[in-house]
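Title: [Solved] DNA-binding transcriptional MerR regulator 3D structure

Original question kept below for reference.
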Amino acid sequence: MTLNDLDDEHRPTFTTGQAADILGVEQPFLRSLDTAGVVSPERSGGGHRRYSRHQLGQASRMRALFDEGMNLNAAQRILALEYELDAARREITALRRRLGEPPDSASADA
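Solution (posted by the thread starter after getting help):
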């Protein structure tokens, strides 16, 4: 393992038990997210789930959405839309940099 591996948010590092402890949830909650296809942890050689920091973030956001009263389908859709919006914002910022515009010039247009 290298230092770059430690920075990789997609590296499958945490067991189901560790992930549950970090998030303050029960292990069946994480397994249910895997079954629903919300997160797809990698498997160790022995078949055990291994979660990345990115997946822990997804699971945490799903838990928050459930706590707000969202059902599984609504929470999944919200999560997907949030990721799309973040990607669009990053792309807009990159395009503005290429055009030489300040990154926050959108606020001046509003």
